[in-house]
Amino acid sequence: MKKLLLIVLIASCAKSEVPFTLTAEVVADGFKFTEGPVWHPGGFLLFSDIPANVVYRWTEAGVDTFLTPSGNSNGLTFNSDGQLVLAQHSGKVSVLQTDGSLKELVSNVDGLRLNSPNDLVYHKSGVLFFTDPYFGVSAADRKLEYSGVYRLSPDGDLSVVYEEFDLPNGIAFSPDQTILYVNDSATGDIIAFDVDEGATLGQPLVFANIGAMAEKGGADGMKTDSKGRLYTTGPNGLIVFNPDGTEFYRKTFDQQITNLAWGGATGTDLFITSSDKVYRLRYQGE
User: Fold this and answer.
1) How is 75-117 classified by DSSP, letter by letter?
2) 19-48, pLDDT tens digit by residue?
3) 234: closest CA among 207, 212, 204?
4) Per-residue pLDDT reduced to its tens digit, 154-187
5) What is the pTM of this model?
């Protein structure tokens, strides 16, 4: 369990203050559609290129292929054993084995194919939560009438915990994991759920709204920092909210941005994926 706590801190929380001014730099480009960044404890960034069916690895020296085929992976995270876990548009959630193979964790609910697992996050109890919109599934292959938010227990028990979203997408815990945030790409709503020690969710409450889907996409990837502030990508770029739901910071981009992850040598670099680029935002002071 100590490994899981470390991974959660690396993947979800920043170690210092959020600046008012952020300068974006392009650290990699030339991709088809990037998503799901996560910082590996080994000192590099992993991110998905969904249509390319590849997980790439970035270091200061450049980019190389980490995993292909990836099952058209989107969101990436780590389990308590430090293994990479992938939300795959091919309709699965899988874990990367030490031999380089992918082992399926779940692909159906009540015998019906999942839509297109999008993003995912672990609770300290070992429970995995993930979103399942229908972005990556054809009308012919779609079997579910709803787009769910799911809870997968360590013993493999899958349950739907929320099915009122049109397009559930980003998902993130508060630093103490007492709140789970999930957003809806269609409406821009960010919903907050209280979470108990056993990873059971309370009633949904509207936390904020960042706008309906538009030219630059919809509500997408989310992360929190050590102050409990929530960062979300969406149709208006990067928006940061205080824990009370008031807006703290906003930065626009020239293109759609899709997801984000804390990383770098000190954990204070913010990596942001977009359609064809990966950006890095560095702290300039608050």
Assistant:
1) EEEE-TTS-EEEEETTTEEEEE-TTS-EEEEE-EETTEE----
2) 655 678 999 999 999 999 999 999 999 999
3) 212
4) 999 999 999 999 999 999 999 999 999 999 999 9
5) 0.93
